[in-house]
Write a structure and sequence with these properties.
The protein is an alpha/beta fold and 436 residues long. The chain has one domain: Ribonuclease Z/Hydroxyacylglutathione hydrolase-like (Metallo-beta-lactamase, Chain A). It has 10 helices and 19 strands. Strands 1, 2, 3, 12, 13, 14, 15, 16, 17 and 18 form a 10-stranded mixed sheet that branches. Helix 9 packs across helix 10. 47% of the residues are buried. The N terminus is likely disordered. This is Metallo-beta-lactamase domain-containing protein.
C-alpha cells in the first residue's frame, strides 16, 4: 500500500522530486514486521524467537553493582590505543559536487574544490568516513548521507553527567560538505541527539529518515522542549521493509549532469528503544540499506552513461539475529548456486557494510542487544560477505566493561578464524576515509 511521505522530503539545494514511501518487495514474500503490544497497542516487539528479550532494571542494577568498567583514559592513552586522524577534507569535498553550497562553516563561499565526479574512478565510488561510534559520512553519486550523528560530549540526557566522550568528533558539523540525508537508527542517546539534529537542520536542512514513532515524538512542536527547534525539519518515517527513494539532478562544477536516486530501506535488527522511564519500545529501531543509482551526461555525442548501482548497509545497533540472512535474501534472492560466476557473486553482495563490534561486555547482560566481534563476523557472513565491512560502535564512549581497544583486536582474530581475506572487515581511525 502506497502512502505519501513528507511533501517536502527533498534536498533544497538540488533539483529533485518529492519522494513517496512504499513497501520493499524484491524477493521476500513474507518480510518480517514488528508486532505491537501494550495496553494501547503502542509498544513495538521483534517477532522472532528471543527478539523481545531485554534485561530489565534488576539485571541493570546487578550489572552496575559489580561493574568493572575500564578507567577513563588520558589523552596520551587514547591516541595510543584508539588513534584518530585529521579529516582529509579534500577527499570529502572532491567527491561532493555541491562542495560550493555547504554549511555555515564555509558560508557558501567559492571554496576551490576538485570536481571529483568528473573522474571515471570517482563518480560511482562509495566513500565512507568514520566520525566516531555509529556515525559515518557516506558519499556516492554526488549524495552525502550522515548516519546516527552525535556531536556532543556526553551520551546522556544531560551534559554534566553520563558517559563522557574520550575521542572528540574529527570535524565540526558546520565544516562538513553539504549533508543531504541523515539516517537515525533508533533513539538511544549515543545515536540520537537534540543539539546535533538542530545544528544539522540549521546548517544543511537535510532530510531525516527515521524509524516509526520518532517523528511524532522528537520532530514536532513541543512547548518548552529543546526539540521544538527541529519541528520544521523534513522527516520521513519508515517501518521495517519500507523504502523511500530520493531523486536528484546534480550539476557538477564542470557543468556535467549527474542524475541520482538513493533508495533508503529500513531493515529489521534486534534492539530496543527508550529515552525516559515511560517510553520503552514506543519507537521502532532499524538498520538501513542505501541503494545508489545514477547516470552521467557529459553533454557530448557519447550520450548518457548508466552507472552500476552501489549498495551500502548500516546495521544501527543490534544483537545477533536471523534478520541479516533475511536482509541478504531480500536484496539478492536465494543463495548462490555452486559454481556461480564471479560477476554473479559481485552483484549478490553489498559494496559496503557498517557493523557494530563494541559495547558487548558482560555477555550475560548485553548479548540480547549488542553483537560482540565474533558475532559481528557472523553478521558479515550472513550478509554474504560485503566487499568491505567496517567496524563501528566502539572507541568513543565507555558504555560497557570491555577495554577500550579490545573490539578491533578481537575482530582481527575472529576474522582470521573465519577465513576472511585481509582487509575484508576492517576498523578505521576516527576521521579516516576509505573508498571502494
Amino acid at each position: 500500500m502506497m502512502k505519501k511521505a513528507f511533501d517536502q522530503a527533498y534536498i533544497a539545494t538540488l533539483q529533485s522530486q518529492p519522494c513517496k514511501i512504499k513497501r520493499s518487495m524484491l524477493h521476500l514474500k513474507n518480510p518480517t514486521q514488528p508486532t505491537k503490544s501494550g495496553l494501547w497497542g503502542d509498544t513495538f516487539n521483534a517477532p522472532w524467537e528471543g527478539g523481545d528479550r531485554v534485561n530489565g532494571l534488576f539485571g541493570l542494577v546487578q550489572w552496575k553493582s559489580g561493574q568493572n568498567a575500564p578507567p577513563f583514559p588520558s589523552p596520551e592513552e587514547v591516541q595510543k590505543r584508539v588513534p584518530s586522524v585529521s579529516v582529509d577534507t579534500e577527499k570529502l569535498f572532491s567527491i561532493s559536487p555541491m562542495a560550493g553550497i555547504c554549511g555555515t562553516g564555509y558560508g557558501g563561499s567559492n571554496r576551490e574544490v576538485t570536481d571529483g565526479l568528473d573522474e571515471p574512478n570517482q563518480k560511482n565510488q562509495i566513500q565512507t568516513t568514520w566520525m566516531g561510534h555509529a556515525s559515518f559520512l557516506v558519499q556516492c553519486s554526488g549524495v552525502n548521507i550522515l548516519t546516527d550523528p552525535v556531536w556532543v560530549d556526553r551520551a546522556s540526557p544531560v551534559q554534566f553527567a553520563g558517559p563522557k566522550r574520550y575521542v572528540q568528533p574529527p570535524i565540526e558539523i558546520e565544516d562538513l560538505p553539504q549533508i543531504h540525508i541523515v539516517t537515525i537508527s533508533h533513539n538511544h542517546y549515543d545515536h540520537l541527539c537534540a543539539s546535533t539534529v538542530t545544528r544539522l537542520h540549521k546548517a544543511f536542512d537535510p532530510v531525516f529518515v527515521v524509524p516509526l514513532g520518532m517523528k511524532s515524538r522528537w520532530f514536532v512542536p513541543n512547548f518548552g522542549s529543546k526539540w521544538s527547534k527541529n519541528s520544521m525539519a523534513k522527516v520521513v518515517e519508515l517501518n521495517w521493509w519500507e523504502e523511500v527513494p530520493c531523486k536528484f539532478t546534480i550539476k557538477t562544477p564542470s557543468e556535467h549532469t549527474l542524475s541520482s536516486c538513493v533508495t533508503i530501506t529500513s531493515t529489521p535488527v534486534q534492539h530496543w528503544t527508550t529515552r525516559t522511564s515511560f517510553d520503552r519500545n514506543k519507537e521502532l529501531w532499524c538498520g538501513f540499506v542505501y541503494c545508489f543509482e545514477s547516470n552521467a551526461n557529459y553533454g557530448t555525442d557519447s550520450g548518457t552513461e548508466l552507472l552500476p548501482p552501489r549498495l551500502a548497509y548500516h546495521a544501527g545497533d543490534t544483537a545477533y539475529c536471523p534478520m541479516f540472512l533475511e536482509t541478504a535474501e531480500e536484496f539478492f534472492g536465494g543463495p548462490l548456486t555452486s559454481g556461480g560466476s564471479s560477476d554473479e557473486e559481485s552483484r549478490c553482495r553489498f559494496d559496503l557494510a557498517m557493523i557494530p563490534i563494541g559495547a558487548y561486555d558482560p555477555r550475560w547482560f548485553l548479548q540480547v542487544q549488542h553483537v560482540d566481534p565474533k558475532e559481528a563476523v557472523q553478521v558479515h557472513l550472513d550478509l554474504r560477505r560485503p566487499r568491505l565491512s567496517v567496524g563501528m560502535h566502539w572507541g568513543t564512549w565507555i558504555l560497557t566493561d570491555e577495554p577500550i581497544d579490545e573490539p578491533p583486536l578481537l575482530l582481527k582474530a575472529e576474522a582470521q578464524k573465519a577465513g576472511l581475506e585481509e582487509g575484508e572487515f576492517v576498523v578505521l581511525k576516527h576521521g579516516e576515509s576509505v573508498a571502494i
